[in-house]
Every structure is written in structure tokens, then in C-alpha cells.
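Just wondering, does anyone understand these C-alpha cells?
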Amino acid sequence: MIVTIDGPAGAGKSSVAKRLAKQLGFDFLDTGAMYRCVTLACLRRGISLDQVESVAELARDLKINLGPHCVELDGENVTEAIRTPKVTKSIQAIADNVQVRSILVNAQRNWGQGKDAVTEGRDQGTVAFPMAECKIFLTAGPEERARRRVAQLLELGVDVSFEEVLELQNQRDSQDTQRPEGGLRPAVDSIMVCTDGMSEDEVLDKLVQIVDQRRSVLLGLNRNEPLSNSQ
């Protein structure tokens, strides 16, 4: 079973999706980390982000390992390095690179074969896994998302202002929704979840409920029978 969680930047997808996967006993795929790894590699190697072919060639050769506790790029732990504002400011060109998207989407599909998995990103329910059994679109208001991102960055030791994060986030929202390939939009069969005013634990409980109900429908079982590892 594939559970996709899509939504805008700062909606809390990565943290709650990771917890959801653990609670369900599923594998977890953070697709945004893949794009961030390609971005970081380009910045470090001095490859211009508008050199479409060069960037795509690099993306093909990178060894990205998305472990349960860290992200590795060619064997190096880059969990914190890929979350810096510098990477965030530069990632759009990578996300808009059609060749890179094709490479990474193929990698995501190969990774998901034969797995029970939770996968999160921008286009998981629409492009990467259009036949996923359960699709969730997670969102929140712009200010709420910016506050969450600031808190996340501060935990990583990155000192940023709320205004800077909100401005970058608004730019990213506009770019993500207007992208012709893999643009941010809910799949027609997505379940919408707005997390304004909800704690992460409350969001997690809601998502577990959604997945359990969906699994019950798919398996023809009573909706009230617990199917996750939540008990």
C-alpha cells in the first residue's frame, strides 16, 4: 500500500509523514530531500542551475540515501546542509528541471515497488504514484507554515527571521503551483487536511484514522477494526 502526502512548503509533511510511516510499520520516502540533495551538489560543485543538461547528468550520478534518521549524499550526512536557506533559495531551478524530475520520479517509483510506504512531496499523488491507494493533501495557512519552518531551522542551528522565511515560502508557493510539470495541486481523489491550530500529535492521529479507514474499505473489512500498529 502506498500512502502519498502532498502539500506546500512548511505544512509539516516531512515530520508527520515520517511518524505516520513508523506508526504504520511502513517505509518512508522524503522526496523533497532528493531535490535538495541535487541542489546542494550543484552549489558545491559550482554547476550553474540553469545548465539543464549538466544538472541532469549530475542527478543521474548522485548516490542519495534516505535513511530513517539521516539523509546521505555520496556517503556524507547532509541532513542539516540540505535545509539551509541557501539551498531553499536555489531549489526552484532544480524542481523545474524536467529531466531531473523524470530521473527522480523514476527513482521514487522503483523505490516504492513491492513496499508498504508513506511518501511525501509535491506531486506524489498526481505524478509519481497516481494509483496510490491513499492520497492526502496536507496544508496550513502561510503564517502558520512560516512559523513552523522558523522553529525547524532554529532547531538545526540556522538563525533566520520570520519575514525572510515567509517571503521565501510565498515565492515557493507561487512557483510550485505554476510549474507545468509536477506542479503543486491535490489529486482529484485526495483527502484534504488543514492543520491550522492542530498539534503534530493531533495531525498524526487524523492521518492514522484516514489510512485505517482506507485500508478497511480496500480490504472489505469493518471500518472500526484497527489495522495500523497504533495500538
